[in-house]
Amino acid sequence: MPTNFTVVPVEAPGGGGGEEGPGAQAGQQPEHAAEEPGGGTLGRPQEAPLENGRVEPGSRGDGIPRESSPFINNDSMERGNIYEGKNMALFEEEMDSNPMVSSLLNKLANYTNVTQGVVEHEEDEDSKRKEIKAPRMGTFIGVYLPCLQNILGVILFLRLTWIVGTAGVLESFIIVFMCCSGTLLTAISMSAIATNGVVPAGGSYYMISRSLGPEFGGAVGICFYLGTTFAGAMYILGTIEILLKYISPNAAIFEGGEEAMLNNMRVYGTCILALMALVVFVGVKYVNKLALVFLACVILSIFAIYAGVIKTAFEPPVFPVCLLGNRTLVRGTEFPCVKYYEENNMTVTTKLWENFCGSPLLNASCDEYFILNNVTEIQGIPGVASGVLLDNLWSVYGDKFAIVEKQDQPSVPVLEETDAKIKFYVYSDIMTYFTMLVGIYFPSVTGIMAGSNRSGDLRDAQKAIPTGTIMAILTTSFIYLSCIVLFGACIEGVVLRDKFGQAVNGNLVIGTLAWPSPWVIVIGSFFSTCGAGLQSLTGAPRLLQAIARDGIVPFLQVFGHGKANGEPTWALLLTALICEIGILIASLDSVAPILSMFFLMCYLFVNLACAVQTLLRTPNWRPRFKYYHWTLSFLGMSLCLALMFICSWYYALVAMLIAGCIYKYIEYRGAEKEWGDGIRGLSLNAARYALLRVEQGPPHTKNWRPQVLVLLNLDSEQVVKHPRLLSFTSQLKAGKGLTIVGSVLPGIYLDKFTEAQRAEENIRSLMGAERTKGFCQIVVSSTVRDGISHLIQSAGLGGMKHNTVLMAWPQSWKHTDNPFSWKNFVDTVRETTAAQQALLVAKNIDSFPTNQERFSEGNIDVWWIVHDGGMLMLLPFLLRQHKVWRKCKMRIFTVAQMDDNSIQMKKDLQMFLYHLRINAEVEVVEMFENDISAFTYEKTLVMEQRSQMLKQMQLSKNEREREAQLIHDRNTASRSTGMVKSHTAVATPDKIQMTWTKEKLISEKHKNKEACLSSYKDIFSMKPEWGNLNQSNVRRMHTAVKLNGVVLNKSQHAQLVLLNMPGPPKNRHGDENYMEFLEVLTEGLNRVLLVRGGGREVITIYS
């Protein structure tokens, strides 16, 4: 995004010959030190003098007239000639642009302006990994065959025929097509990511995390790990089902019904899990050797299925199925499909009769349905040419314990059914419906990551992963889709819906179709599920190890360690324990939807990663795989999300909740990595778009929030002098605005580069400790004065610029070694005013609370003298959102003059606060005009003498100290001889010893203006120096003294006092007096925040 900077050249400070005195002449100006945060010198050129010596307001010494500012009064007339009243003389510079509160309350208006925004900062960290050498494999061995083995697994052999019989050929085709399409689209996205650079060990996790960032990568990586682990449990359960149902039913430990079978699964499953974990622990090379054997069994089984289908066209296998009416009966090898038969002219009952009648006798009491319906025997495998496909096109869903029935078979129904005989029928063990079948089937297509999980072992991962994975998906998709059609065309519907082959003598249903023998499928599927389980137990620990070694999830770091050869021992142990949880569930149909959620979430984010990278078009996005498009990735993402909710909406929500919790945990604890991922790029694009939008139009008052530039002062070791300034900043951040922490180092950038880096590190460390989120900006400038000016002008970007400057009051401005250091502060005030920015000055900042302190009681007092945008209202509200100030009450004081109706002012102010939705106590303080006290004259006299001394003497440090002491001693001696000694005050640097009579003060207090003028003459005659005082300074000092007394009376014990900050004088020769006015105004208060608004409304009564 192009950014335009305008650099305006200015004359060096001291270039103009104004009235700064000899110390400010060109070539002799002392180097300005950064005594306080505000004490940095601001690099503002001096005002240009006119021919008569008067300084033209608005000029800066370069001869260019400046635009009139509403904040610095350009009227050079003597304010004392036109301003009536003395109480608010200190704020008379503000009156042209900022109204008094009393006049504001009479006219509430609408508000405008200023920007908003929050930018989160993340640090970079470059982590280097040692590459572990491993055997290198090609596309066929390393990707194609492992994917083939993992995809063609337990669901194909144990559940696909049942899905076809239950959902019908059409709906089964839709299920398989949706799932295969999702995996194919995911594989395309994965291929684009895998070919966009080197993919080391970690596979899919590495691709997701480096594309979407550590938060998404960690969350999805853990979900994928859990899915792979539960897949191992599913394969082991499939192995036990094949063993106990079809290979050795007599091996069952527990005898009985369904519950006994579940216990058998748990016992045998735990034993096989331990055996497989031991094999994986011994070495992956043994798993790889066994994998080839298991894969050969899978391929042989697939060929046996196709060969059996071809054979059924001309010689179908003989697997008779016995029906009672239209109900399918459980049949054993010795089970004749008749009720009775004739033998030696005698009627002999069969086992079937005995089951339904309870006795072999002909006169026994039999089941009503058994008596009314005939027994029929049909062929279970009628063959591909039989036309049974038409019967199997449509779905037949049912409830749990629903008996499997042949739809077109005649049957005589009965009124009352007995559940006692259900064990002789083939029935459904679970309720069946479309979405449930999707959840059970999807794990059969989830092996697509098998190749990418071995990316560290591949010779050329960028070539092998796309080619091998897509070819494996196309191969398996053809197998699945063709098998659905062939199963529906060859096998009777009641046999398809018989999950465990009870109607065909307990044979595996898919095995009845195989050639040359059902045992080919039984043995092949047994070894296939064993191999898939071993592959899962091999891949899952390595995935967990990759996550742990990245260090993004702190509590998983222990699982990054292993044996000396890199084998993940501890990760294998955790994987086995999680896998045991799946085995204890003991139901293949219950475990399958769980791992479907985890895999679908992983695939969803793979597609999202590819779509984000493609749409962002980042320069680094240059995949070698060209057959991708963002629309395909978006379609794959949408399909995965739809499948998640189709499978189980509550499982989907739980999986998302788990991923979300992991995401937030990584974001909070471990996400300190910068991998150049797509989410970072997305954030950059979003930030750029938002910045451009922010600059399109002026922001509304409702969107205003303090965007703070904090000016910090550093010591010689680049350590922050006032860390509590950052504490106070964080306490203000309920406004959710921008924070820029800046500081200035005097010198040349090439020489100070190391110090600037160290200063930035120290400030960032302190920001982290204070939980201040924002940016740090260090400026190296020839003078601190120029540096602060540059910060105020250029900090921020576009619409995300600061609107408020926060700085500390220069406590030692009177006693500093450099008499010009206070100019830094005053020039900073002028800079912020010219920039139309608000200014916050924290006095006694070291007594402000830290973020760990709590105020259990107390007040935040606001002294609202002039209205300058509402900052005084907004700041206490923001502070009270923080736990430090939460229990403090807010009080608002405003000042009423003699001609103001204080009662009405209070009512108006209460109504104003009500509309602002701010709760605060309101009090109107009446300040009537009275005589200027002798104390005020004394303070003004000392102030002007100090100013004169600093401006007219260019002496060394020791000489300046001697002159200051001589003037002080002379003034003290004059006061001791020329005044009536009825009252004596102890002399201090800020409070001069003086003498005055109480009766004189009381008699003078209520006189009119003419009497006041005569009294002034009397006063001047008593102390001749007073007659030479600048009357404007006297009035300002009078305001400061009087207002300070009122504030002390009401707010001396307040936890914080917020006060309007008067503007600086229009002529620079009075800057040192301005500092004295502010010092007197805030004297005796513990914590003070001087607030000077930026001239824009920041708070509104409207919604």
Task: Give your account of this protein's structure.
This protein has 4 domains: 25-68 and 115-122 and 702-802, no CATH class; 140-318 and 432-670, Amino acid/polyamine transporter I, CATH 1.20.1740.10; 320-379 and 398-423, no CATH class; 930-1047 and 1070-1084, no CATH class. The chain is of the alpha/beta class. Strands 8-7-6-9-10-15-14-11-12-13 form a 10-stranded mixed beta sheet, with helices on both faces. A 3-stranded antiparallel beta sheet has the order 2-1-5, with no helix packed on it. The chain contains 33 helices and 15 strands. Helix 8 (284-312) runs parallel beside helix 13. Strand 12 (889-896), helix 27 and strand 13 form a beta-alpha-beta unit. The two termini are 34 Å apart. It is 48% helix and 7% strand.
Fold topology:
Blueprint: H1 79-82, H2 101-104, H3 139-151, H4 154-158, H5 160-194, H6 203-247, H7 258-282, H8 284-312, E1 320-324, E2 327-328, E3 340-343, E4 346-349, H9 351-357, H10 368-372, E5 375-379, H11 434-441, H12 450-453, H13 461-490, H14 493-496, H15 509-513, H16 518-550, H17 569-585, H18 588-616, H19 630-647, H20 649-670, H21 678-694, E6 708-711, H22 724-731, E7 739-746, H23 749-769, E8 775-781, H24 784-794, E9 804-808, H25 822-834, E10 838-843, E11 859-864, H26 871-879, E12 889-896, H27 902-915, E13 921-926, H28 934-952, H29 957-978, H30 998-1005, H31 1009-1022, H32 1031-1051, E14 1056-1060, H33 1071-1081, E15 1088-1092
Membrane topology: Multi-pass membrane protein
Family: Belongs to the SLC12A transporter family. K/Cl co-transporter subfamily.
Protein name: Solute carrier family 12 member 7
